Request: fold
Amino acid sequence: MSKKREKAEKALPPELALTSPDLTGESLAKVEKEIVRAEDPYVTPSTIAQKYGVEVNTAKKILRLLEEKGLVKPVSRTRRTRVYVIVK
Reply:
């Protein structure tokens, strides 16, 4: 394994370490900051995936982590996706 990938895996929470080698702890913090400042009233896994260039599965995990931190709150849940509202 390369040094860059090892470093990236160490900086991530354990849930994201194996699924997204391109997402670092710093970029996760960037996502958190930008979601808090977002003008959109809601956020979905697909919007996160498109904006940050990650897979939808990774975006779902990011939103679950943000939900645990209390930054977003789920308002609609279907079999396929969830819609979150940003807690201000």
In short: Residues 24 and 71 are 19 Å apart (CA to CA). The first strand starts at residue 42 and ends at 43. Strands lie at 42-43, 72-77, 82-86. Helices lie at 3-11, 14-17, 25-36, 45-52, 56-69.
